Amino acid sequence: MKILAVIPVFNSWMKVPSLVEAVRRQGLDVCIVDDGSTMSPDLSFLRVKAVLLRHSVNRGKGAALRTAFSFALEQGMKES
User: Fold this and answer.
1) How far apart, in whole angstroms, are the C-alpha atoms of residue 80 and residue 11?
2) Cα dist. 49→10, 29, 59, 78 in Å?
3) Which residues are within 8 A (CB) of 77 and not within 5 positions of it... i.e. 6 or more apart?
4) Rounded to 5 degrees, what are φ and ψ at 32?
């Protein structure tokens, strides 16, 4: 079974690179949902390490999680 770690983010990009690295070391795939951040960080560190999904406006953590879950299901991952 493939496991996808979901990281919802709203303007808190400072710790994301190290968090992604830590999750990837565990052998997990990573999906970051930018929930309408107003910051424009350098996201070059994500190139191969994570999928980035974006909301154009802040919709809340629940909506960010739903977006990631929909993505996972579209990619063929199954609920357990």
Assistant:
1) 31
2) 19, 8, 25, 21
3) 2, 4
4) -100, 130
Dihedral angle of Cα 28, 33, 37, 40, to the nearest 10 degrees? 60
Tokens for 68, please give them. Answer: 């990631």
pLDDT band for 1, please (50, 70, 90 cuts): low
Sign (positive/negative) of CA torsion 75, 34, 6, 80? negative
**For 23-79, how does the pLDDT look when each residue is reduced to its tens digit (9 = 90+)?**
999 999 999 999 999 987 788 877 788 999 999 999 999 999 999 999 999 998 877
Report the chain's terminal Cα–Cα distance, integer Å.
9
Residue 8 DSSP symbol = E
